[in-house]
Amino acid sequence: MADIKALITTIVTPLVQHPTDIAVDFKETNRYLEYHLTVNPDDIGRVIGRQGRVATAIRTVVYSVRVSGPKRVRLTIEDGQQKNS
Questions:
Q1: pLDDT tens digits, residue range 23-66?
Q2: What is the biggest distance separating any 2 CA atoms in the chain, rounded to whole angstroms?
Q3: pLDDT of residue 52
Q4: Which end of the chain has fewer CB atoms within 10 angstroms, the N or the C?
């Protein structure tokens, strides 16, 4: 299987000002291979882009990677802030 985690990191690293804060977590569900990208809160705008164009471009590249089996790849972009529960 292709190393999608490395692909995501390679694409995002030149976009951000805090490359050490990039984290990609993987979770497999019944239908998806889920990747959660976490960046520094200061860099979230750079990764998403205007009207989500950069995020859409990143997802297009990541989703085009062929994986074996019926599962699909899903990328979620998070800003690294703690969620209030």
A1: 999 999 999 999 999 999 999 999 999 999 999 999 999 999 88
A2: 37
A3: 92
A4: C
pTM above 0.70, yes or no: yes
- The number of residues in the chain equals 85
CATH class, range 4-78? alpha beta
How far apart are the C-alpha atoms of 51 and 22, rounded to whole Å?
22
Candidates 33, 52, 48; CA nearest to 78 is: 48
In order, the DSSP letters of the chain are ---HHHHHHHHHGGG-S-GGG-EEEEEE-SSEEEEEEE--GGGHHHHH-GGGHHHHHHHHHHHTS--SSS-EEEEEEE-SPPPP-
Q: What does the domain layout of the chain look like in residue ranges?
A: 4-78
Residue whose tokens read 């209030």: 84
List the structure tokens of 66. 């062929």
